Amino acid sequence: MTDCADMPMPQPTEEHKRLEELAGVWNVDCTFYMDPSQPPMKVQGKETVEMFGAFWATSVFEAEMFGQPFVGRASMGYEPLSGHYVSTWCDVMSPQLFVFTGNFEGDTLKMAGAGQDCMTQGPATYRTTEKHGKDGTRTFEMFMTPEGGEEMKLFTHVYSRAS
């Protein structure tokens, strides 16, 4: 039997090192498409991202929505065994934990997950795209497809580095 002390410690992969690009404070221009019959809602936010060891990035997102503070938390890492990035999201306005998996295709991280449609409370699938610009910006979009329905864009967030 092998002693655990003799086992090599896992080392960060190139995918883990890519997460380090996210660390820092970001200004976020948010556009929400809540009601197709209404103009999109614009909100300014801030996201603070920190590395949690060498394998995970964690973040706190802060904004004001509907006249009250909105706070969300996310984690993102890379699972070498599955070969996918994994991400979680939770916020103060929803009882749901969102879980996504995906990979980069060029400069765009594409992820997908399943959850609850906040409007109908029925099942829905979600997908996100996060395009990393050469200028250091990131454009994050989320789409939802309710069960038996058509995909709709929920929001676009454009991130620019504050520090």
Quick description:
The protein is 4% helix and 60% strand. The chain has 163 residues and is mostly beta strands. The chain has one domain: Lipocalin.
Q: Main beta sheet, described?
A: 10 strands, antiparallel, barrel
Tertiary shape? globular
Low-confidence spans: pLDDT under 50, at least 5 residues? Answer: none
CATH architectural grouping: Beta Barrel
CATH class: Mainly Beta
Helix vs. strand class: mainly beta
Supply the number of structural domains: 1
Number of helical regions = 1
- Write out the CATH superfamily name: Calycin beta-barrel core domain
Strand content: over 45%
Q: What fold name goes in the CATH topology slot?
A: Lipocalin
Please state the average pLDDT score.
93
What strand line-up does the widest sheet have? 1-2-3-4-5-6-7-8-9-10
Q: What Rg, in angstroms, do the CA atoms define?
A: 17 Å
Q: What is the β-strand count?
A: 10
Helix-strand topology string: HEEEEEEEEEE
From the N-terminal CA to the C-terminal CA, the straight-line distance is: 49 Å
Helical content band: under 10%
